[in-house]
UniProtKB/TrEMBL annotation:
Residues 32-51 bind DNA. This is Regulatory protein, TetR. Residues 9-69 form the HTH tetR-type domain. Keywords: DNA-binding, Transcription, Transcription regulation. One of its GO terms (molecular function) is DNA binding. PANTHER family: TRANSCRIPTIONAL REGULATORY PROTEIN. Transmembrane segments: none annotated.
Length: 180
């Protein structure tokens, strides 16, 4: 049965959105195509009319998630106040505890390194994020690495106090003195 293009596009976007959330929550290996399709309210059989492989879906999900990050950076980079607010939201326990709604880079970097098909998408999106941050490219790289690294470390351990300390210390060091 053929569906109207608009309906097909909506289903495709839904699959990508759901996959992005599930992958960020559990990683690539712990999410099956069948789970993604079920969570999206579609049958498993419909998957291959949208994607040639799980790896193609993973790349689309990474692109989707990183495009959301890019939009957030563009929206919040206008002033020191909005940048500081973005930094506070990113380096928060709410973000730490909700990877499915958070940053793709901090949730999936470990998975992406093992997926050559996804690495190109990641690199392309990371370059766009760094460019959108403006200013000195080295500062953009440092800030991104510090934020993502802090979130990875904050999520990895079982010591909540240490996790909060990591987020707090990185937030203090990245917040401009005038905003502290």
């Amino acid at each position: 049965m053929r569906y109207p293009l608009e309906e097909t596009a909506e289903k495709h976007e839904r699959i990508v959105r759901v996959a992005s959330e599930l992958f960020r929550e559990r990683g690539f290996d712990d999410v099956t195509v069948a789970e993604v399709m079920k969570a999206g309210g579609l049958t498993h059989g419909a998957f291959y009319s949208h994607f040639p492989s799980k790896e193609a879906l993973m790349a689309a999900a990474v692109e989707y998630g990183m495009e959301a990050t890019l939009a957030g950076i563009k929206k919040n980079s206008a002033t020191a106040t909005t940048r500081a607010a973005y930094l506070n939201r990113y380096l928060s326990t709410k973000h730490r505890d909700n990877p499915a709604q958070g940053c793709t880079m901090s949730a999936l970097s470990g998975d992406i390194r093992n997926e050559p098909e996804v690495q190109h998408t990641f690199s392309t999106e990371l370059k766009a994020i760094l460019e959108a941050m403006g200013g000195n490219r080295g500062d953009a790289i440092f800030t991104t690495a510090a934020m993502v690294g802090a979130m990875v470390l904050a999520r990895a351990g079982d010591d909540d106090s240490l996790s909060k300390e990591i987020l707090s210390e990185v937030r203090k060091r990245l917040t401009p003195k005038s905003q502290a």
